[in-house]
Amino acid sequence: MQDITQALSRCANAVEAHLERLLPSVSTAEGEVVEAMRYSALGGGKRLRPFLVMESAALFGVDPSRALQAAAALEMVHCYSLVHDDLPAMDDSDLRRGRATVHRKWNDATAILAGDGLLTEAFTVLASPESHPDAQVRLELITELATAAGAKGMVGGQMIDLSPDRAKLDLAGITRLQALKTGALIRYACEAGAILGQAQREERTALRLYAEDLGLAFQIVDDLLDHEATPEETGKPTGVDSDAGKATFVGQLGLEKARVRAEELVVSAKSRLDIFSGKAQLLREIATFVLERRS
Ligand code: GRG
């Protein structure tokens, strides 16, 4: 656990420095939105998705400076989704990563625009030759991220999450919702490494299956953490579960079975990496980290 925590922290520092370089500076008339973009993207978060990009790419010997571009672009999309998810029209949260949410620190309009700014900036980053010298590879990185983030991925999952029928979802329905809402970006993280590394079909499939198991385990653990969370952590008053009124994995399976299911998924995720043998050790360890994380 010590090693993976250090590896994750090293990756987070590299991503932080790269985001710092990529994000526009605040010295312009539109400085307010840039300040809000920087506030939401810098100085926090586990950087799990960037770590998955970096480690998946490392399997194929990709130059880390290239992988960092894709890692930072993906983190921008993730940060945008958090800023928008926190808005009163969605989750209505006051706190994110232990600080005031963007709409609380500024206002709703600035939060919407900061999210839009981060989402669009991500594609500029991927389109840059710094991401990969081959335009075909850049195009695939862009297309796959657009698909993962869009209506067939995260946005679609968020729509189901907000729908009036959300409370009635059964286990299969929740699994599908979460595969889209949080799973799609986690899957992209691993596929981006395979795209950058121009992986063989079976290698890319193995990474995709690993990511699908990991994404589901991540969400089940999130439900478990949400169930245990204090008001200081959720930004909600005591007794108000952030998924109150919604069907969750914990609600469907109960605490014990939900934890067992997450453990099974992590075992399965690791087994998907067998074809990479010793090269995938950090990807195996991050799966254990996802299971054991406390935030
Ligand atoms: C607004 C289009 C749109 C989508 C929002 C992912 C998402 C979709 C909303 C996030 C809501 C949420 C808190 C879901 C639980 C799982 C999750 C994505 C947690 C946050 O990800 P972490 O734990 O966060 O990787 P850090 O801060 O470490 O980056």
Automatic annotation (TrEMBL):
Protein name: Polyprenyl synthetase family protein
Keyword Protein transport recorded: no
Highest taxon, organism lineage: Bacteria
Family: Belongs to the FPP/GGPP synthase family.
Keywords per UniProt: Isoprene biosynthesis, Magnesium, Metal-binding, Transferase
Pfam families hit by this protein: polyprenyl_synt
Cofactor(s) demanded: Mg(2+)
Organism name: Kiloniella laminariae
